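Re-run with default settings, no changes from the original entry. Doing this only to confirm the output is reproducible before filing.
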Amino acid sequence: MTVTLIVGSGFVGRAVAARLAAEGGNPVLASRRMPAGSDAPWVRLDAADAEACERVVEAVRPDRLVLVHGPSDVTWCEADPERALALHSSAAAHLTKAAQGRRTVLISTDNVFDGSRPDNDENTPTAPANAYGRAKLAAERILREGADATVLRVSLVYGWEPAASAKWLNFFAGCAHRLRNGERVEAPDDQWTTPVHVADVAAVTAAALAPGTPGLLHLGGPDRVSRAEWAEAIAEGLGVPRSRVVRVPKAQGRYASRPTHTCLTSTLLDNVLRRHGLRVRGVDEGIRDLLEAAP
């Protein structure tokens, strides 16, 4: 059975573990804290510690790796850019060295672009607009020095998370919980994204572990929407008034450091999807699927 070490046991890491297990694989999550809501085996790991990375790789003996380590909170990274850069870079360097020769996928971000255009594909020059983008780009460059690696840049990921989560919820979950509670939601009408359902991210990540996947691949959803439009669609799906969504400029809140366009397109993704029999949901379908399975 193929063993995959997934470094990072957050929202995306747990979804990737579930996908690989469903495909008959043996995923192992690794992080500093034990994750909740996952049936996958877990090992403690501080990826910024080189010796710890070597010990975990030696103990788990993975056939391949998925790196989806943090910090991923854009606002936190902007507040402590040097720490963010150090954590992302050191983890990529330590794990690449410890697992030398093993197939590796790094989950990266659309924040490696400056947000000036809505159609960033694999050939678009990088120009990070914030500290998170700079940290991820540094990790990308370390990983791509390896002989068997793919950088998978992913647009905004969404799905259900518990309302009481200690971390900042993804945009869909945060909006849905507040709207269901009768609250108003402020959402920027001047910040656009190409959202991707977390299950689709997990499926494409699993596919990207296959040999022959391009060294750089973009995963964005088929729909380009503003956060305000997206929040209104969530309200409509819930059957609550769209007027509960208050349109605001991104500079007014926590989205100030996000590029205007956090959007990804791809010249390569369609071939990967066809090869593995996959498709990526649009926003309306994603909202409908999630609300039908609402906790």
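The longest strand covers residues 103-109. Residues 81-98 form the longest helix (18 residues).
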